[in-house]
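Appendix B. Raw example, untouched.
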Amino acid sequence: MKKNRIVALAGAILMTVSMALTGCGGSNASQTATQAAAGGEASGEKTFNIKLGHNMAEDHAVNIALKGWADTVKEKSNGTINIEVVPNGVLGSETDMISQIQGGALDMAKVSAATLGNFSKAYTAFSVPYLFNDKESYFKVLENQDLMKEVYDATADQGFRGFTWLDSGARSFYTKDKEIRKPEDLKGLKIRTMDSQMAIDMMNALGGSATAMGYGDIYTAIQQGVIDGAENNVTALRDHADVAKVYSYDMHTMIPDIVVISEKVWNEMSDNQKQIINETAAEMSSNYKQAWKEFEDQVINDVKGKGVTFVEDVDIPAFQEAVKPIYEKLQKDEPDTYALCEKIQAAQK
């Protein structure tokens, strides 16, 4: 993406995500660091200097949203909560960052619910294909505080907990050159998936061949013919449009990103600080819905100029029928996950 486009997009996203947050600020935005520290001491609250890691680029909507949120948290907490956002996977993979949180070396991270499925079956539910009826239903579930608290609390005994979500779009298939309109079109294709058993089971059900690998390896793997394509939200084309020329909207999953915090850090915060984290994070998540849509639209517009074809006449009912065995297997082998899937589907009505 050209530099001027990046700057324009970054500015638009930051404005969308952070204006509402800072507009209702509780403290003076011009407050100095000395005044902020004094405010913390006066309130008797502990000061936290927190690192928040994620693996997106600096100009990605995620990084822009998190940095805007960090500024708001610092302001509203009178400088008692200072969050340094560390992008670009500098702190390692999502699994690495969770391990660091568990070991006390990191405080927060933005990770996919798919990754969190390796730590709690509660998150596995979000990787089940066609769990959500549509985008509106997806948001309805994520904004259901009682239901999501059950999910967030599921990893507390492992040293961390979730506290908010970020939209990560609908995942679909994109390939070097083949259009995917029905499950049969995947037969014989090697498709990169996340390192998730649910993703692998989905590919098996649809007739493709799952190849788990890191995101950073996809470009070369497609270029060299190691894989025929991948599955992800449309923004992945920012990185892969030179080698993947067809994006087919089967929209098999909608897997949110989750922001998690060390349970130790969380328990050391005052009730007021926890409230600040929760309220500002919820506001960020809500505003991010529009920021993410604008980000997707910008990527789509950019990659059309690189010759990418978007296939919209996909037989989604055929895909839904093909993955029914996954639900049957869940009901038999993982009844708790299946029960949560049923609860999520009921919450959409």
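End of appendix B.
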